Zinc-type alcohol dehydrogenase-like protein (Roseomonas haemaphysalidis), 333 residues
Amino acid sequence: MKAVGYHAPGDASALDDIERPHPHPEVHDLVVEVRAISVNPVDTKVLGRAAPNGNEPGVLGFDAAGVVRTVGPAVTLFRPGDEVFYAGALNRPGSNAEFQAVDERLVGRKPANLSFAEAAAMPLTSLTAWELLFDRLKVSRQSTGTLLVINGAGGVGSVLIQMARQLTGLTVVATASRPESIDWCKRMGAHHVIDHHRPLDEALKDAGIEQAEYVASLTGSDEHLPAIAKLIAPQGHLALIDDPKVFDIVPLKTKSITVSWELMFTRSLFQTPDMAAQHQALNEVASLLEAGTLKTTLQQHYGTISAANLRRAHELLRSGRSIGKVVLEGFAA
């Protein structure tokens, strides 16, 4: 089958068009014909630092929408012909291929009202936002107060703003700096948008808000920590998803702040007993998309799935100027 892979860690130039064996399902697996994918910062991080296992080239890709073709012997949630979307696992071959084997417990039904491209933009960011909001920050549907989303125009921020605005009573404040990213955050539902090039505590006060009970730090956590320590409310919650080089949480002690990490891949990496929570969350997201409560964050379509087009997508993400999600669809004949 056709795929895009790499033979050694590097930048986007390491990606090549390759041929791979057709996957076979393990006991809980679906083999999915991949129709569309999207690209996430984790793709560039893994490409930059992780060598492929064994002698086979590595295949990236942590977002896909497609059609189930075969199933493993213990599969109960899906059958061949079902349309699905999912984000997969870090420790298995990814979605940059014509076919992919994925555990059914990580898969949701594709929203009926979205194209494959529109659906492929959503799984990883929706799961990350869902887990961050409800599992890590411990927000409920009845929660009130303020949520600060640092980097609101990125993939996760775009979905997190929507979820918090539509599913809770929180006041949502997003950070952005360019006119187009500010406009995007407002379109996603942010009540206020502040400039993350300023000290965030000062910018928040200028928006008329003294403190935030919840902070979702999606990038630049080490840079913003001094301001977060000032603006976060006593007994507040901070959750982060990025990779700060140094992150000293001691300044948060006097306020008894709860600090949590969110990694969407934890359940699949450790085969936790609640792996199927991702199946359930994606099905809930599908229903919310079908109802119009959430909307796809697809922003750019880069054409077919190929090394050349994936290199362009990786370069955009590395630039730090992407808004929403970049999607690729189908393989050239």
